[in-house]
Amino acid sequence: PTSTAVLDVAGLHAGYGKVEALHGATLRVDAGQIVTVIGPNGAGKSTLLNALAGALPGGGNQHGQVCFLGEDLHGVAIEARVARGMCLVPEKRELFATMSVEDNLLLGSYRRYRAGEKNHADQMPVVFDLFPRLRERRRQEAGTLSGGERQMLALGRALMAKPQLLMLDEPSLGLAPLIVKEIFHIIVRLKQTGVAILLVEQNARAALQVADHAYVLETGEIVLQGPAAELAHDPKVVETYLGLA
Ligand code: ATP
């Protein structure tokens, strides 16, 4: 891998017990980039992100190579991957419903706190600047937030860890079109803060608009890839994923 690769994945297989869901994925994310993986329901997008995070049950029978910031992650546990700067925002958001917005954010910096970082909460003002709505609602219980606000909180909590790589699993899922627009706008602003982003989406149109590079995943295999702006004009992508607008 070259020095600019944040994530370099080669021939990654993973699955559930004896059932393989990912059949040899090869991809990379360079520093400062948004890279998207688009594809239909059940293609293996979540499996890919969970494999990279080290979060598949029983390790997910993984083989292949995953290099993060130049280091092989083979055998590295989920906690240690987080400590190295990898952060997954799962599809289900996984917030603590009865805790306040602020306390949910603080949990995002818990590992830094445990590591003895005195300024473990230093990203709180940054998060509140990105999401003024969270600042207004800092004392509100997370369980009472709207869907869009919950996604903002999930993103904000991830940022509290000061990650090098953010992995976003379908951030637009279940959100109204206007909120989806807002979330993607924020994703671009996140990129401007310098964090590399691996974005998994079924909303191909929005994902291709914000991404630098894109991969198409179908039934566990990467079938197409290229600069996002080029893939957005690829006839197969247009027909299958963008509809005939
Ligand atoms: P979606 O957008 O619907 O989440 P996806 O592209 O993220 O789709 P995955 O969730 O990664 O797809 O699923 C890939 C394959 O793995 C599917 O065939 C799915 O049924 C299977 N799978 C996912 N989770 C499990 C699990 N916990 N146990 C067994 N099989 C699973």
How would you describe this protein?
This is ABC transporter ATP-binding protein. Residues 7-244 form the ABC transporter domain. Keywords: Amino-acid transport, ATP-binding, Cell membrane, Membrane, Nucleotide-binding, Transport. A hairpin with a 2-residue loop joins β1 (5-16) and β2 (19-30). The chain is built from 11 helices and 10 strands. The longest helix has 16 residues, at 177-192. With 245 residues, it is α/β, with parallel strands linked by helices. The strands form 2 sheets. Strands 6-7-8-3-9-10 form a 6-stranded mixed sheet, sandwiched between helices. A 4-stranded antiparallel sheet has the order 2-1-4-5, covered by helices on one side. α3 (101-108) runs parallel beside α7. It binds adenosine-5'-triphosphate. Residues 16, 19, 21, 39, 41-47, 202 line the site of adenosine-5'-triphosphate.
Distance between the termini: 39 Å
The gross shape turns out to be: globular
How big a fraction of the residues is strand?
25-35%
Q: Share of helix among residues?
A: 25-40%
Helix-strand topology string? EEEHEEHEHHHHHEHEHEEHH
**Unreliable parts:** none
Labels describing this entry:
245 residues; alpha/beta; 6-stranded mixed β-sheet; 4-stranded antiparallel β-sheet; 11 helices; 10 strands; globular; binds adenosine-5'-triphosphate
